[in-house]
Amino acid sequence: MTNRFYDHIKQYVDLSPSDFDSVLNRFELKKSAKKEMLQTAEHHCNTLYFVLDGCLNMYFLTEKGTERTVQFAIEGWWLTDFLQFQKGGKTNFNIQAVTQTTVLAISRENYKALLEDYPIMERYFRKVYQIAYGASLVKMRYLYDLSKEEIYFHFTENFPEFAQRVPQKLIASFLGLTPEYVSEIRAKKRS
Amino acid sequence: MTNRFYDHIKQYVDLSPSDFDSVLNRFELKKSAKKEMLQTAEHHCNTLYFVLDGCLNMYFLTEKGTERTVQFAIEGWWLTDFLQFQKGGKTNFNIQAVTQTTVLAISRENYKALLEDYPIMERYFRKVYQIAYGASLVKMRYLYDLSKEEIYFHFTENFPEFAQRVPQKLIASFLGLTPEYVSEIRAKKRS
């Protein structure tokens, strides 16, 4: 399954199979059961995850105690609290496995050493983050410009792989909608 | 004024003064008058900007023709449509100078060559984008968790340098509020 990681990297940079083996050595392969916590709020953020299979949900608890998703990650996506991972601070976000999930996990220390030893991985991550940041600005546009109903259908039509795999209530949370509202507009569309 | 760029880079990576001169050579120093357009929607996105002085506003036009800000940039910030800059596609965003603004501009070709010739700049941009992406996830949290009034005061208290320099109506647009609403809550706070 780690071949998926190699295929992903090769989409961005040219990395030899032997260098890939050395890169992979810095990671830990980890299987999480459904609902298992990978990161807990109020703790130091010291791990970056790459999803090989399954789905992770990064969320925070509102003052009222509701879980609100800020990002989820399926195969080929990176996830952590990137700001706190950079400086090793305490995070406000939880990361939980939505389904049974297999990840590659790398510690801050190993990440730093990896980038030191393999400058090609600086390029890889520069491209990954540049695209992720660019996509977040485009997301702002949809949040501002579309009605709640349009946001939901835009998302499910443009990201069918998420819509099929992620529970409706998490998609609702990610889009800033209530699960009840999503049920309502789905029923309206079917009728 | 280009010293500001060197100081910025030095916060992230170690770059010698002579290498900085070579890096700087790939950029064009450009002064824009207030309201001047630096990027126009429906055109190819081929330029990345670093603000030395002043302020840029990246916005799109809603279907109703209203300008909505997705990001602005003051000294020390990078701005472009990062997704389209990566692939040279057409952008949906406009970039306009809010005040008289001095930028360093780099073309896609020069950016690519710069990263080829100076791997240390891959590290620099990797860090810049990692932080920008991380901050965008934290912003999602505030957009979801806070009331509109709290969003406004959170922003102006945490980013006073923006609040002082950027017109109220742009801050309102960036935060997804109407200018009328911002006037109202400011008046309420003063009273």
UniProtKB/TrEMBL annotation, chains A, B:
InterPro entries (alphabetical): cNMP-bd_dom, cNMP-bd_dom_sf, RmlC-like_jellyroll
Signal peptide: none
Bilayer-crossing regions: none
Highest taxon listed in the record's lineage: Bacteria
Domain Cyclic nucleotide-binding: 11-115
Full protein name: Crp/Fnr family transcriptional regulator
Lineage summary: Bacteria, Pseudomonadati, Bacteroidota, Flavobacteriia, Flavobacteriales
A Pfam family matched in the record: cNMP_binding
PROSITE patterns listed in its UniProt record: CNMP_BINDING_3
SUPFAM superfamilies: cAMP-binding domain-like
CDD domains named among the record's database cross-references: CAP_ED
